[in-house]
Amino acid sequence: MSADKVARYADALCYTDLVAGYYVGAADEVVAAIADFSTWFFVWDDRHDRQAVHGRVASWRVLRNRLHAALDAPESALRHEDPLVAAFSECVMRLFSHLGPAWNARFAEHFHAVIEAYDREFANRRTGTVPGVDAYIALRRHTFAHWVWLDLLELAAGRELPDSIRRRPEYRKAALASQDFSAWYNDLCSLPKEIAGDEVHNLGISLIHHEGLSLEAAVTEVRRRTISRITEFLAAERDVLKMADDAEDGTEAGHALGAGLRGCLFNMRNWFSSVYWFHHESGRYRVDTWDDRSTPPYISDPAGER
């Protein structure tokens, strides 16, 4: 975004407001770091989109490799010539300053997978390949960065959860329900602009292309699937609350674990309302007000630039 477009559009995009609803109770420096990272993610997503639209294969490959390198050694890229890479490095360093090496390594592993999933999206868009429904759902869990946002729940709670908790079916069911809801509701609200922009990655588009649904039927089916994740979360939430109760064994460590688990679950729940609010308030989805429904007005992107 150019400076004039920042002044004109940034507040209406509501990027930082969104994070304030996702990670309630986080320390100020933590929520600020997550908010900046979330804003960076939106900007990166838009860069990726424009590079795919204009066929900037070499530019995308360079950026992909630079982000992988910056994730492995963020301190070395703080003054990178590409502001997107430098900003990413700063965000990562701030996120890495709280919970320690094990959490940092897990976050890095998850975000490396996100970068690679974006690479698969880039290839699909260049060839016009629409993933099948199941393949799309699996890919979407990486491009939406499910595991990254779930890692950040722990950062907001101020406690790293042990593998024995995170890998419990009850916890994973609640976690995936909150993130699937968010990703699929985003698909529902993004469908008009993504159809206009010849996008191939959207649950509705996969249903239309592979299941033969009409646009109206696809919208109904995406809405049904999205609502089902609310029901699934509510059932899993009860089980996770019991896990938190069981963790409190009378010791200080047990009390801290129970509190951390409840904090993560609380903000999983907050993702539902925050995502709903964001998609009806942010200018990112008000395609009916755009001159060109395929290109957001807040993006500076000369079509011929490679």
Descriptive keywords:
306 residues, mainly alpha, Farnesyl Diphosphate Synthase
Structure description:
75% of the residues lie in helices and 0% in strands. The protein is mostly helical and 306 residues long. Helix 2 (15-22) crosses helix 3 and helix 8 packs across helix 13 (252-281). It has a single domain (13-289), classed as Farnesyl Diphosphate Synthase (Orthogonal Bundle), CATH 1.10.600.10. It is built from 13 helices and no strands. The chain starts with a helix and ends in a 25-residue tail after the last helix. The chain has helices at 3-13, 15-22, 28-53, 57-72, 83-95, 101-127, 133-143, 146-157, 163-166, 169-196, 203-211, 215-247, 252-281.
Give the count of structural domains.
1
What is the 3D shape? globular
Based on secondary structure, the structural category is: mainly alpha
What is the name of the CATH class? Mainly Alpha
Strand content: under 5%
Termini separation (Å)?
17 Å
Output the number of helix runs: 13
Rg (C-alpha, Å): 19 Å
- Mind describing the biggest β-sheet? none
> Uncertain spans, ≥5 residues at pLDDT below 50?
none
The counted number of beta strands is 0
